[in-house]
Amino acid sequence: EPQGEPCLLVSDIPSGVGIDELEMYFENKKRSGGGEDAQIEYNEADGTATVVFESPSTLDRVAERTHKLRGILLSVVSGFTGDQKKKQKQTHASGGPAKAPTASISSKFEPDKVILVNIPPSAS
User: Fold this and answer.
1) Distance of CA 67 to the CA centre of its chain
2) Which run of H or E residues covers position 42?
């Protein structure tokens, strides 16, 4: 399964920040380490964005820095396009309140990620 392209997953974006402000920040080499080639997908409702740079060196440079917008520290982690959507699907997939599901932890070829898998109760 293709992972998508390397990108930065940005969260904790302060409410009220628009796409224009985000673009100006990540396209400004002095402020963020980014550049004109920034492509941003912004989900204003949950304060998250996916930022793609054509140049891998720009991506690395931005990933190494700490980022503040309006005095608030942003969470910026390297990932792949589609990661945030997958995460949203997993967190919003619950069908209302239920008893706590039993979970197993597996490190499915991604040592830096922990994947929780729902285990159906045994039929015994």
Assistant:
1) 14
2) strand 39-43
